[in-house]
Write a structure and sequence with these properties.
The complex is a heterodimer of chains A (316) and B (513). Chain A has 14 helices and no strands. Chain A is mainly α and 316 residues long. The two termini of chain A are 13 Å apart. The two termini of chain B are 33 Å apart. Classes of the chains: A mainly alpha (316), B alpha+beta (513). Chains A and B meet through α2, α5, α7 and α12 of A and α7 and α13 of B.
């Protein structure tokens, strides 16, 4: 097991390096640079050149990349040129909000997706199965900015039971904090559960035809025990993969959902940084988020090993 | 979602409003004290240090109007009234302005507000070593002197007849910040501002909420009613409106692009629609150096092909008021004849045909769905007269640099609502201005702009500005699309809002009924 972790960690290094190069390039290739944004209507070729020189923007791309990377490796992600805040403290301030949002979305997604998938797999071909499979496909096609507005209209404007926008710190009002997260998390979850259902349903159908399930049935075990204990675990390998990859989708979704619901998370931080060409902030946040995603998928890889003994013992 | 107007409700509200107005006129309304007001703004505020943020946007103005004071303020007729300055006089040539400051005012950190503090603020912004983007807007100020504690002298390099009015906007140049706090807090000052204003910043969650509390030592505290104000950035217009409907915010900023909501609240007794007809307009510059736009008849044809009413109906639900000059109904400049070209497709077609060569150029719009829609409407209108227009979409941050580098054929711009037309008129249209976007030079235009700048008499200036409008319309170097109208929607119990000058919702003296 330790050897496996070590080997996987080695794979991570080139991936993270590639992430840093891509992050830097994407930020550097955005049209219009910091000097233009800072100078605005005072931008003349001379003032632009002078400011670019001051900010080191006139150096070759490669040199700028290595300067940035060497700072990052020492734990210095730089400061926002607009607010003066360090990238790390900005991320630390906003990350918990995005994490709570994504965790909530994942929980809601799984708690809708798993039961639906199990029922569909057991009652394969029934009206429930057909409605849910079709419904899942429909849900998948609804963009989050639309479902967000519909949910706001329904729960905040019509029923007035949940706030339309805004965030309350947990320390200030735990109940208010949770209430504020329901609609944004639900918006994201509406795009999550269909994926979960479709993947788990087909794996489950395959598992239910295995001999050991017939064996369990023959032993006279209860249906619920067979489904939840014997069938769910071997069927969930693809689900775990999908859940890991889905976190990437959730991060993308958070950008839109945080903007609509006015949640001060990482997504909003990114949008603001892009609009203001706050390159240090942009590079830092993207690198941190991407590294986090890579690490999460590394953990997902390790989860396989616990789920599937063949991987654990190198016979996969 | 269909929209049906309940005319009975409209009538009822109108009657109620009339009755309320009668009460207002009859006796002084008793303002109620206390309570919290939550304001839904559009954008996040990055900070308040001019050196860091350069210039404030509308959201920052709203917060600045609470935390800071300006030297002057505008009354509801648009004339300057005392605020931190109590009186002022100018020299004959309008280049030297002397202000007497209010005595006994303190910054929220306890340090005194005086002439030296004002001088320190402005000197810091103008210091070339600080490279502040804000310096551009006070480039007409040569120096500020503080001969004694409460006397302040502005020395200008160009005459300004409306300096006191100009100083009323809560911009990064005009709000007075505590020199002691700026020096003591360094990098942290930007998000921990200290002013002399009616509200003190208590807490600020980045990207979320700015919590302000009444300043107990404010120099005019009897006219400050709310205990607390919360400012929240709500970027999505529909979600912002829903937050107002569901009760979590009390007043929101809104614009004409979501006209359905504006029409809807007009029929809802629980809400008040605040409308301010500002001066200025949405405008576009035509680059007169680029063929075929160097030909005046081609430019005239483009302007004559614009069906502003049609655009308003197609994109904005018919709300915007078409503009025929750069001043608008909200300005004190009123022209009997502004020289506007008529909407005349047949004439426009004939002009393009007479030009003889193909008319082909690019239109630069913002890379938003709205920008694209507007671009496509223009494209269609110009296609009907035989012009081949391509649309180029660029994002908001690249927009000003492109304009200033003159890398465009036709580009959208805005003349914002300011008390004095001079700063923007001179900057946009004088041949020597660095932001003369149309690349157009005309000695008569320069003479008129200069004359309007150095004249104090409004009747004289109006004559100049109307002549300028006729000249610009005739030369078709720029065109005007829609006048500026600013909107706020509040719960009906929110009272005491002044006019929304420059689109700023100023809740510093608001109260809850």
């Amino acid at each position: 097991m330790l050897k496996l972790i070590g080997r996987r960690l080695l794979y991570l290094l080139p991936v993270l390096l590639a992430v840093s190069v891509l992050t830097f390039l994407v930020a550097a290739l955005l049209p219009g640079d910091m000097a233009e944004v800072l100078l605005g209507d005072q931008a003349t070729p001379e003032t632009l050149a002078a400011l670019r020189h001051d900010m080191g923007l006139d150096q070759p791309l490669l040199v700028r990349y290595f300067i940035w990377l060497s700072h990052v490796l020492q734990g210095d992600f730089g400061r926002s040129f607009r607010t003066g805040q360090t990238v790390l403290s900005a991320v630390a301030e906003r990350l918990p909000i995005s994490l709570e949002l994504m965790l909530g979305a994942q929980l809601i997604g799984l708690s809708i997706g798993i039961p639906v998938a199990i029922i569909c797999a057991v009652r394969q071909g029934s009206w429930f199965d057909r409605t849910m499979t079709g419904g899942a496909f429909g849900m998948l096609s609804v963009p989050s900015f639309l479902s967000a507005i519909l949910l706001i209209w329904l729960f905040a404007v019509q029923f007035q039971i949940l706030p339309a926008t805004g965030y309350t710190p947990f320390s200030e009002d735990p109940w208010g904090n949770l209430r504020g997260f329901v609609l944004p998390a639900l918006t994201l979850a509406l795009g999550e559960w269909p994926v979960i259902t479709r993947v788990l349903r087909s794996d489950m159908i395959a598992t239910l035809q295995e001999d050991f399930i017939a064996m369990a049935r023959a032993k006279g075990l209860k249906q619920s025990r067979i489904l939840l204990v014997h069938a769910l675990k071997p069927s969930s390998l693809t689900l775990v993969t999908v859940t890991g990859i889905n976190i990437g989708r959730l991060i993308g979704g958070a950008v839109i959902v945080e903007t609509i619901f006015a949640m001060p998370g990482i997504g909003r931080l990114l949008v603001t940084a892009i609009y203001s060409r706050d390159l240090m902030m942009l590079q830092g946040v993207v690198l941190l988020v991407a590294s986090g995603f890579v690490m999460l998928n590394f953990i997902v890889d390790l989860l396989y090993a616990t789920l599937d003994p063949r991987i654990r013992h190198g016979r996969g | 979602m269909g929209l049906s107007i309940d005319w009975r409700a409209v009538l009822r509200n109108t009657l109620l409003a009339t009755a309320a107005f009668g009460l207002l006129a009859g006796s002084a309304v008793a303002q109620k004290r206390g309570g919290t007001l939550t304001v839904g703004m559009e954008l996040d505020i990055t900070g308040f240090d001019p050196l860091k943020v350069g210039v404030f946007d509308t959201s920052a103005y709203m917060a600045a109007a609470l935390i800071f004071d300006t030297l002057t303020m505008l009354d509801d007729k648009g004339a300057a009234q005392p605020k931190l300055a109590v009186s002022w006089t100018s020299s004959e040539d309008l280049k030297t302005w002397t202000f007497k400051l209010r005595a006994g005012v303190k910054f929220q950190d306890g340090t005194p507000f005086n002439a030296a503090a004002v001088k320190w603020n402005i000197d810091r912004q103008k210091d070339p070593a600080n490279k502040c983007r804000c310096a551009f807007y006070i480039s007409n100020v040569d120096a500020v002197d503080a001969p004694d504690e409460l006397t302040l002298i502005f020395r200008l390099n160009t005459p300004s007849s409306m300096l006191p009015e100009t100083l009323s906007l809560p911009s990064s140049n005009n709000v007075m910040q505590s020199p002691t706090a700026i020096q003591a807090k360094g990098d942290d000052y930007n998000r921990n501002p200290v002013g002399t204003g009616p509200y003190v910043l208590k807490s600020w969650v980045a990207g979320d909420r700015m919590a302000l509390e009444k300043n107990p030592d404010y120099w005019d505290k009897d006219r400050v009613y709310l205990d607390r104000i919360a400012l929240k950035p709500l970027p999505d217009a529909q979600a912002r409106f829903a937050s107002l409907q569901s009760g979590s915010v009390d007043i929101i900023w809104h614009d004409e692009s979501d006209s359905d909501n504006l029409k809807k609240v007009a029929t809802m007794p629980a809400f008040t629609l605040h409308t301010y007809v500002g001066s200025g307009a949405g405008v576009s510059a035509i680059n007169t150096k680029n063929p075929p736009l160097d030909d005046v008849n081609v430019r005239r044809a483009l302007v004559m092909a614009l069906d502003r009413k049609g655009i308003a109906d197609a994109i904005y639900g018919g709300m915007p008021r078409p503009a025929t000059n750069p001043y608008g109904e909200g300005s004190w400049v009123k022209c009997a004849d502004d020289g506007a070209l008529p909407y005349d497709v047949a004439k426009a077609k004939a002009l393009i045909q007479a030009y003889g060569k193909p008319v082909k150029f690019a239109l630069v719009v913002t890379s938003t769905p709205r920008g694209r829609a507007v671009g496509q409407v223009y494209q269609q209108m110009w296609k009907t007269i035989g012009a081949d227009v391509s649309i180029e979409q660029i994002d908001q941050a690249s927009f000003p640099p492109r304009a200033f580098a003159r890398k465009f054929d036709v580009i959208g711009w805005r003349i914002i609502d300011l008390a004095d037309p001079d700063p923007q008129m001179y900057a946009n249209f004088h041949s020597a201005s660095p932001v003369n976007l149309a690349n157009y030079s005309n000695p008569e235009l320069d003479r008129l702009l200069q004359h309007a700048r150095v004249t104090a008499d409004r009747t004289e200036r109006t004559k100049d500005y109307c002549a300028i409008s006729r000249l610009l319309n005739s030369e078709a170097t720029w065109f005007w699309t829609f006048q500026n109208t600013y909107y706020a929607i509040s719960k009906a119990r929110v009272k005491g809002l002044p006019k929304m000058y420059s689109g700023v919702i100023d809740v510093s003296h608001a109260w809850l009924d």
